[in-house]
Every structure is written in structure tokens, then in C-alpha cells.
Amino acid sequence: xxxxxRRTPLFEQHKALGGRIVPxxxxxxxxxxxxxxxxxHAVRRAAGLFDVSHMGELTVDGPAAAATLDRVVAGxxxxxxxxxAFYTVACNEQGTIxxxxxxxxxxxxxxxxxxxASNRAKMAAHFATAIGSACTFADRSDDYALLALQGPxxxxxxxxxxxxxxxxLPRFGVGRGQISSTDLLAARTGYTGxxxxxxxxxxxxxxGLFETLIEAGKRHGxxxxxxxxxxxxxxxxxxxxxxxxxxxxxxxxxxxxxYTVDLTKDAFIGKAALMAAxxxxxxxxxxxxxxxxxxIGRHGYPVLAAEAGQPLAPVGIVTSGGPGLTVGKNIxxxxxxxxxxxIGTPLAVExxxxxxxxxVVKTPFYKRQA
Length: 370
Known about the structure:
CATH architecture of the largest domain: 2-Layer Sandwich
Low-confidence stretches: none
Strand content: 25-35%
Shape: globular
Mean pLDDT: 97
CATH superfamily of the largest domain: Probable tRNA modification gtpase trme, domain 1
Number of strands: 20
Radius of gyration: 21 Å
């Protein structure tokens, strides 16, 4: 029997703002409000507010927390300064990806780990087993609501609300503060390719904070943003999505996120397999595609190529695709054999039985100007 869909603390706010609610990762969440295109441009040009309370929050605490995390994830938690965060992955012994994570070091012996909503149960079980009694582990997902304030006007909105201490955070910095007398944890992180903040707050305070931000943001062009624009934004920024670009069949190296792995560390889960994978090099790579012909490459569409006078034949698969609303081109991410991964390589995507021309291009498709 399917589990009933859950609701975040902001469900009533989404309905009141006209959000179109859809099932996602076990939750009822807004896919759009005014429309994907308008919301996408609002984040790029002004600011957007996302409800990402469905994400999982795990904690690891104790004198052995850093050393223990170093054995469980591919990156180096022990090298992380207090008040900072990093992006990494947790792998299995085969060196493939269980989940991608952001890990925040809140204190010397205290870490917060954000995992994907669809992987919450899997990752909670994985961490609990791997950590054992070495330190204190907890799944705190139900103790947090999470808002993402993203876009070039995000700083101005928080400054208007007297939260200048939060706007002083560096990229990937994390710290405690207040907005309108509401205590929260803020991080200068996000999933859009824009500057912005993710705000961790007690669930019962989330509706009030959401409404405060919406009101304060009106003069700065702030709009509520749904899942649709969240996806188009992260695609332009070449941010991987679990279940599309990465999963338990992919290694960090073929996904182009090898920087999340520290092979200089002592033993950690998957190290031997990852060392072997790096030494032999990836047989396939995740590349960016720009559609030359008319059409949009979508998840699961075959990627075609021709070799030495041979007809087009399937060689790869599209993982994500859609309109690049900022760059003005139809774009996609796809896995192709390494021999076809060079920038400028002509390929094609099979769309409704037709081969539509595409070309490998440099990613990210969009990069914010500093």
C-alpha cells in the first residue's frame, strides 16, 4: 500500500498563493504559482522563495563526529572549518552514489547533513549502521522546515529585515541568527546557480517567516517559486539531480563531481573502488548538450552518434533536459561514451522517433556574474 502524501508546514500558504500542488518525493508540493518561465526569470533577475522543507536533515555529534563522518562520506569532514559547509557524496563499497549531501559544521563536534527527500530513510539507515556507537546520530528531518531565498536581491531582502549578520556569511558559510525575532540557522547555499540563503527553522515558525519574507520581498521583486522553476534553474547551473544524473549506478567521476571525493583520506566506504575508477578513467561522461535542431531532449531520450560513416545509433541517454530560459536555447544533460564527450562533438537526440541534431557544449550553461 502506498504511503499517504505528507505536507510541509507551508501547505496552506502554497494554496493561498495559488500554487498548483503535485506529488513529489512523498510530499504535496507546489510545481508552480505564476508559471515556470516567470518564476525562473524572477530568481535570475530579482529573488525567489522556495519551500524545501521536504529535504532530510541528519545530525552527527560527539568527539568522534568528524573522524566518523570521514569514514562514511567521500569528502573530508575533518577539514571543514566551524561555520562552513561543503558538498559531497556518500558512496557504497562499489564506489557508486547513495546520495549527494551538503554537510554543515555547526561546532567542533556537531554536524548537520542535508540529504535528498527521496533518500531520507535510506541515508538515515546507512548513517546509523555505519556510525554505530562511535558518536550520536539522529534523523532530525521532522524538527526542521527549510526555506530557500535565492536571487540577486536576496541580500537586500534580509538586510531590510535587519538580518545583516546573516548577509555577512560567506559562500557556503553557516550561522545562527534571527529574522523578525525568529531564531534560525542560515546557510549561504542553494540549488539555483544564484546567490542566496537556506533558512532552517522550527516547523511551527515557518508560516510566519514565509509570510514575512514574501511581504518584505515585494519591493524587491520576490516571488514564490515551485518545483518546475527549481528544476530549470538547477539544470542551467549543471547541478545534478539524484535519480536523474546520479544514483547507485553512477560514480562521482563519470558524473563530473569528482571534486567531492578526497582520495587522500584514510579508509572510507567505497575508497578502493573509487581509486580504481579514477585510475582507469570513466567509460562514460555526463555532458551538456545544446539542441541544434528543433526539439527538447527529455529524461530517458536516447542520444545518437555516427562512427566512421556508419548510420546514427544509440550511444547514450539524456538525464535531464528542457528550455534554457536564461540562455535562450534548449539544453540537456546526458551520459555518452567518453569518446563522444569532447566539446563540439555533434550528436543527436531521438525525439518521437526522429533524430534531432545536438552538440556537446561547455557547462554550466549559465553562470552567475560575480
